[in-house]
């Protein structure tokens, strides 16, 4: 319950407590300001109620506010006058004017409320209100109005005011009686409002009578209690949520009834005048007898009229009940609804005062029974055969039927049975029996006979509708069966066909009559016959439930079709008496399911098993091997450089390569083994029951040999190679499930690809540790980027003739927080593999360019120092490499001519055309290009001619022996012929530097001159004189950069 629903009760409780304080607890007892506060609370409560509940009759409620405010203003004047002037209030006074103004405000508000509740004039309610008002007004005239008129010693104004108070009360009473006698809703707010007005009128009448008798004193607080209740109850009525319903119209079916209470009030009002006269003439016996006799006659007439009115009301009620029953019977959609409407109508006709049982019997169709006492029976058809026999000739002996009903329902002695036949066209279709211990009035019997006639027609209509519906259903069923693609077959308990739908000719090629009388199982495939026989053998043993089986049925031409057969046991159904088979051709669906199942477990490109099917077969092979003590081998195969084929020849050619590889792999294994493709360029082979590791190795050798044979695709030679990992599940390397075995083979393949492509490796438990270490290093490398653990070191490049600085090469270094310095050969390939080389290379490029600007500013020379940065193959293939270089140059301000980008010879093997395009775009930025490690890879003069390089960097392997310099001389001569600068890498000994100078090499770098150093050390190196930093006499320990 929300606070809005409780506020009225809280208001009454608080204000009631204050009223009790005013009446009984000094020093606040009789306190003028306190009663004024309570009066004001009533005004405020009405305003709050209007704002909170927003009634539709707001004008009436605002008039109530005005009336309450005027009453409160009169109280303020009256109670304050004695305090301010120390004397009684004069009569008449301003207070009287305020009090008298209350009556028109309240009366107009009540009239508006009555009109809202009764938009259509209710003449009977108006007359009733007038009778009560005249009666009570007569009392007011005798005891209040007339004495004030005849009172002497008053001025005309005083006399008029004295009469105005009781006259106003009578008019206000007339309005409230009109409100009370209408048929509007009686909500809690209604009773609070009427109670408030009653308190006001009763208190006013007692106050005026006390004034006439001279017994009133302002110290008598009982009168104040009445007026306070008037304030509080009206305020509570406004705060109650039901105040919104006070202006609602009564329901259309609500009629003004002459209730005992209303009749008593009206009769009492009419006897007020004789009563007064009776009191006045108590001393005159003759007049008293006349008065009493008149009153008795009046009461007798009223009683007689009341009986007639009550009888008329019952007749109207029965008419309405019959009318309602007729509407329900017409709208009834079947027998059950007809029965329910009939029984409800009987209960309505008998009324609440009559205790009866109502039973409806239908001829030959069972019985419906119910009771106004809430009892019920279920009578079967057997229990009503007597009715069918009794009505065989078109009529029913009602006395016999009544006795049979009493016997069937086991009624007690003294209970009467009324039987009403349900006849249609002089034929009795049933009876309506009413069993009651109370007497049934003749008027009720007439109404029940009329009801029986309506029920007869309704039952007949329901029977006709059921018959029509049944015929339509049968016709519809025949039409559906005739045109249905399903086969509907009815079998007897022995499995013989008793009915076959005509659709069998269209579906299976047989005539419907050809199959009737034959065994249905002769059409069923031999493998499916046991299941069908089981269904037939259970006939009659189970409830009518539907089950489904799938089986193959033979077509007339000898072909077999797949059917889904739903069977329902209806042997106990008298309308069917058989087992119903509903067969649907699902051949296409089964073929589609088989196709989907094949697609779900096979690779669409190679038609090999996919990962799901392979894992399932491995799991089964493992379980079989554990039972039989055998070994299971798995080979994981990854094609080497398959991406190159896809990128250069296209994906269509790549699919052809995959299909050829799949064919060759299938040729190298036994029929019992399984070859699968996992996706991309990954394959797997299950060696089921392999004897030992050597057998698996032999399979791997055959497979690699078979794969290495070249073949042509689009007139181009392709040489497929693969890396293979082998894992054998046996005593030495156990595997608990397929995933673990596959994971081990994958690890071995990874090791084979890392060590030497085109080979195989056998899984060893220690491999997991190496793979895990590599995974950890990969994760640490990602974290190193985020945590700024990478830094750039710089190794000087010098001119060999004078050891003068030519430039520096930027080299990446990684200082791990726990492992220390990680060699570049460990993490650079990993970055290349994972793609992290792209963001790392971008960062190195920016750092090197910014350092180059710092060097140029601090160590300005005639020939500015160059900054060399290495580019990997993956960086060069990146779409953003040109933009990255441009951004690094523009952001740092380094002149493009000072930046040297170093590439390796391996770029010419990836995508030569793309490499040439990228290098030309970089060259267009103004940077210089260097070929790093020249002479160790895919050295080709044709490639060198196509690449726009400016510098050749000779690999350190040419300097391993200072005695044989022919290879170094060839590289230097090649550079001179192509007008390229040559830089010798890895110079560690003075004699190597001397030999290179003699051969004509001008530039070099290595530990002989300086190791890679951080930028602070580089700045110190540049600040020292070149000659003092040469250190030619000190021979450093050899070390790889």
Strand order of the largest sheet: 18-19-21-22-23-24-25-26
Helix content: 40-55%
Low-pLDDT stretches: 364-397, 1025-1041
The profile of the biggest β sheet is: 8 strands, mixed, barrel
> Under the CATH scheme, which class of the largest domain?
Alpha Beta
Task: Please name the fourth-level CATH homologous superfamily of the largest domain.
Answer: EAL domain
- Looking at the overall shape, the CATH architecture of the largest domain is Alpha-Beta Barrel
Average of the residue pLDDT scores: 78
- Briefly note the structural class of the backbone: alpha+beta
Shape: elongated
Estimate the strand proportion.
15-25%
Count of helical stretches: 35
Distance between the termini: 85 Å
- Radius of gyration, in Å, reads 57 Å
Quickly count the domains: 5
Number of DSSP E strands: 26
Enter the CATH topology name of the largest domain.
TIM Barrel
In a few lines, what is going on in this structure?
The protein has 1041 residues and is α+β, with helices and mostly antiparallel strands. It contains 35 helices and 26 strands. Strand 2 (367-371) and strand 3 form a beta hairpin.
Report on this model:
The protein is α+β, with helices and mostly antiparallel strands and about 1050 residues long. It folds into five domains: about 5-125 and about 180-250; about 315-465, 2-Layer Sandwich (Beta-Lactamase); about 480-580, PAS domain (Beta-Lactamase), CATH 3.30.450.20; about 600-765, Reverse transcriptase/Diguanylate cyclase domain (Alpha-Beta Plaits); about 785-1025, EAL domain (TIM Barrel, Alpha-Beta Barrel). It is about 55% helix and about 15% strand. The strands form five sheets. It has an eight-stranded mixed β-barrel with strand order 18-19-21-22-23-24-25-26, surrounded by five helices. It has a five-stranded antiparallel sheet with strand order 3-2-1-5-4, with helices on both faces. Strand 18 and strand 19 (about 805-815) form a beta hairpin. Helix 5 (about 125-150) packs parallel to helix 7. The protein is elongated, with a radius of gyration of 57 Å.
């Amino acid at each position: 319950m929300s606070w809005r629903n409780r506020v009225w009760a809280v208001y009454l409780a608080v204000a009631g407590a204050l009223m009790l304080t005013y009446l009984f607890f000094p020093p606040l007892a009789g306190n003028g300001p306190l009663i004024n506060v309570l009066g004001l609370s009533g005004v405020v409560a009405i305003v709050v109620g209007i704002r909170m509940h927003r009634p539709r009759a707001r004008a009436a409620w605002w008039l109530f506010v005005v009336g309450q405010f005027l009453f409160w203003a009169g109280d303020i004047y009256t109670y304050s006058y004695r305090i301010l002037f120390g004397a009684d209030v004069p009569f008449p006074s301003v207070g009287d004017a305020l009090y008298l103004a209350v009556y028109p405000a309240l009366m107009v508000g009540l009239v508006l409320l009555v009109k809202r509740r009764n938009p259509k004039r209710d003449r009977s309610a108006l007359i009733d209100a007038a009778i009560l008002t005249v009666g009570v007004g007569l009392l007011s005239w005798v005891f209040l109005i007339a004495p004030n008129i005849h009172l002497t010693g008053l001025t005309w104004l005083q006399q008029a005011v004295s009469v105005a108070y009781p006259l106003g009360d009578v008019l206000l009473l007339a309005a409230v009686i009109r409100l009370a006698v209408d048929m509007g809703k009686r909500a809690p707010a209604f009773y609070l409002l009427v109670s408030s007005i009653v308190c006001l009128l009763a208190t006013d009448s007692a106050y005026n009578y006390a004034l006439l008798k001279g017994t009133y004193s302002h110290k008598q607080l009982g009168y104040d209690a009445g007026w306070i209740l008037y304030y509080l109850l009206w305020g509570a009525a406004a705060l109650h949520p039901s105040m919104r319903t006070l202006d609602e119209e009564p329901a259309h079916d609500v009629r003004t009834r002459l209730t005992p209470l209303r009749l008593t009030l009206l009769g009492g009002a009419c006897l007020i005048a004789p009563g007064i006269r009776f009191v006045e003439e108590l001393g005159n016996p003759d007049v008293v007898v006349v008065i009493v006799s008149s009153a008795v006659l009046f009461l007798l007439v009223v009683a007689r009229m009341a009986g007639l009115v009550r009888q008329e009301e019952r007749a109207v009620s029965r008419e309405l009940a019959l009318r309602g029953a007729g509407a329900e019977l017409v709208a009834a959609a079947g027998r059950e609804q007809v029965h329910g409407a009939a029984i409800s109508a009987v209960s309505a006709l008998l009324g609440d005062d009559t205790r009866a049982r109502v039973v409806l019997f239908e001829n030959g169709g069972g019985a419906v029974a119910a009771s106004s006492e809430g009892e019920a029976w279920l009578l079967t058809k057997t229990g009503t055969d007597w009715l069918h026999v009794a009505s065989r000739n078109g009529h029913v002996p009602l006395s016999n039927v009544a006795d049979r009903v009493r016997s069937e329902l086991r009624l007690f002695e003294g209970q009467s049975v009324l039987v009403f036949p349900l006849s249609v066209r002089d034929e009795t279709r049933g009876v309506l029996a009413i069993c009651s211990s109370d007497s049934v009035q003749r008027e009720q019997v007439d109404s029940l006979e009329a009801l029986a006639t309506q029920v007869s027609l309704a039952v007949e209509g329901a029977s006709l509708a059921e018959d029509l519906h049944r015929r339509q259903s049968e016709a519809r069923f025949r039409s559906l069966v005739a045109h249905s693609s399903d086969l509907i077959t009815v079998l007897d308990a022995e499995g013989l066909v008793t009915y076959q739908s005509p659709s069998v000719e269209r579906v299976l090629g047989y005539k419907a009559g050809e199959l009737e009388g034959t065994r249905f199982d002769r059409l069923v495939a031999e493998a499916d016959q046991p299941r069908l026989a089981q269904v037939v053998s259970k006939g009659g043993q189970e409830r009518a439930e539907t089950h489904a089986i799938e089986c193959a049925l033979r077509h007339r031409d000898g072909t077999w079709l797949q059917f889904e057969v739903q069977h329902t046991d209806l042997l106990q159904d008298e309308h069917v008496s058989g087992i119903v088979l509903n067969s649907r051709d699902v051949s296409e669906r089964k073929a589609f399911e088989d196709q989907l199942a094949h697609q779900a477990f096979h690779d669409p490109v190679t038609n090999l098993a996919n990962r799901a099917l392979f894992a399932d077969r491995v799991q089964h092979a493992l379980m079989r091997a554990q039972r039989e003590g055998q070994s299971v081998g798995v080979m994981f195969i990854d094609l080497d450089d398959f991406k190159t084929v896809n990128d250069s020849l296209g994906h269509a050619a790549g699919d052809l390569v995959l299909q050829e590889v799949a064919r060759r792999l299938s040729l190298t294994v036994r029929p019992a083994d399984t070859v699968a493709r996992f996706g991309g360029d990954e394959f797997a082979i299950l060696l089921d029951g392999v004897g030992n590791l050597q057998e698996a190795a032999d399979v791997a050798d055959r497979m690699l040999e078979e794969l290495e044979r070249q073949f042509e695709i689009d007139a181009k030679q392709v040489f497929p190679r693969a890396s293979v990992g082998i894992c054998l599940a046996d005593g030495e390397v156990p595997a608990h499930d397929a995933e673990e075995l596959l994971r081990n083979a994958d690890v071995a393949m990874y090791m084979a690809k890392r060590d030497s492509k085109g080979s195989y490796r056998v899984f060893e438990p220690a491999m997991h540790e190496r793979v895990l270490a590599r995974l950890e290093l990969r994760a640490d490398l990602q974290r190193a980027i985020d945590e700024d653990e990478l830094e750039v070191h710089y190794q000087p490049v010098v001119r060999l003739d004078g050891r003068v600085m030519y430039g520096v090469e930027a080299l990446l270094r990684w200082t791990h927080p726990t492992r220390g310095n990680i060699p570049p050969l460990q993490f650079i390939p990993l970055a290349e593999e994972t793609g992290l080389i792209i963001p790392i290379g971008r960062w190195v490029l920016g750092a090197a360019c910014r350092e180059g600007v710092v060097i140029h500013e601090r160590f300005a020379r005639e020939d500015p120092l160059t900054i060399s940065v290495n580019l990997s193959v993956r960086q060069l293939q990146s779409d953003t490499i040109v933009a990255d270089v441009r951004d690094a140059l523009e952001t740092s301000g380094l002149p493009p001519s000072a930046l040297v980008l170093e590439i390796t010879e391996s770029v010419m093997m990836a995508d030569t055309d793309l490499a040439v395009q990228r290098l030309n775009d970089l060259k267009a930025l103004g940077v210089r290009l260097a070929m790093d490690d020249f002479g160790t890879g895919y050295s080709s003069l044709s490639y060198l001619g196509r690449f726009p390089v400016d510098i050749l960097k000779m690999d350190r392997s040419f300097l391993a022996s200072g005695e044989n310099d022919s290879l170094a001389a060839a590289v230097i001569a090649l550079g001179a012929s192509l007008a390229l600068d040559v830089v010798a890498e890895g110079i560690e000994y003075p004699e190597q530097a001397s030999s290179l100078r003699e051969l004509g090499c001008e530039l070099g770098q290595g530990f002989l001159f300086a190791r890679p150093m951080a930028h602070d050390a580089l700045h110190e190196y540049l600040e020292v004189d070149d000659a003092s930093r040469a250190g030619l006499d000190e021979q450093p320990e050899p070390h790889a950069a």
